[in-house]
Structure formats: structure tokens, C-alpha cells
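Notebook, bench 3.
Goal today: get a predicted structure for Methyltransferase from Candidatus Iainarchaeum sp so we can plan the truncation constructs. The sequence was checked against the plasmid map this morning, with no discrepancies at the termini. Length recorded as 182 residues. Pasting the sequence as submitted so the record is complete.
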Amino acid sequence: MEVYKAAEDSWLLKEAILAEDLKGKNCLDMGTGSGIQAMAMLEGGAKNVTAVDINPNAIKASKKKNSNVDNITFFEGDLFKFLHNNPAEKFDLIAFNPPYVPSEEIKWKDTDGGERGREVIDVFLEEFERALAKKGVLLLLVSSHNNEKEIMGVLNKKGFVSQIILEKKLFFEKLFVIRSER
């Protein structure tokens, strides 16, 4: 399985991360891929970063690329399963660039998001709260194919205040970064 290379979506989410005050905070880069978001978190002042990806090659490549960085912990696994050994751990910021491309079947886990492009996003939305600190922030990148208004509605029903803070028009879709906090 290839490692997802940073592209327009990665750069947009990085911009959102760098706009946050992360000094001394504990952050989670869900779906780390190339590790660009984890490095942005450290650049923004994060004390500790946890980088998670289901792709073992992504974890291997990110570990190698960041071998001189002490405050990134890497986990290979599916979403929040890495917390089974430490269920009390909470993050001040969770950033996720999920697989969001609609596809009939998930062939390439880095981009294929299922029929509506929401298969992984919907599971993430059910699970992320248990890992988010009380006054934590979620930055979620989605596509216009995923129905960003519906996703914001799900977050708002959970008691979050959500807004689109960045967007980028591409020739076949629009990308959005949704920022949510309680």
C-alpha cells in the first residue's frame, strides 16, 4: 500500500492547524499519511503529537522521516483502537484528513471513502468525542462530495459549535476544513 503524498487537501488542513494556538498542547494527527499534519502541530508549538494511520507503510515512512523528533508517538491501526491501552488519554486538538473520495468499494484505504465518501468519516464521528479533551478542537477536512452541511449537523447535534474555516475549489469538488469545539 502506497503512502498518501501531501496534496491540496493536506496543505489546506496544515493551514488550519497552524492557525490554532497549540503551545504546550497534546495533539492527535489521525490518518497521518506523510506526517505533514504531525509536523505542523509541532511547528505550531504542540508539546506532544500522536500520529495514527491504518497504513503500515505510512507509519514506517513517517517514523523514518521524523526519527530525530522525540515528541511524536506513532501508532498503526484503525481510528481510535490505539487508545485501548490508554482509554483516558485526551487530546486538545484532533486533526483528520480522512479518506473522502466516493467509491463503490474501498480499494485504497488512503482515499477511498465508500459509496458516499463517508464510510470512515461516519465511524470517526461516532468515536472522536471520547478522545477529545473537554475544551478540545476538532479540525476535519471534507469534500463537497461528503455533504459538509450534513456533517456539521451531526457535530452540532453532539453539542459542538462547528464552522467552515477554510475552503478550496478544485475543478471537480470543493474542499472544506470544519472546525468544531464545545
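The longest helix spans residues 8-18. The longest strand covers residues 132-143.
Flagging this for group meeting.
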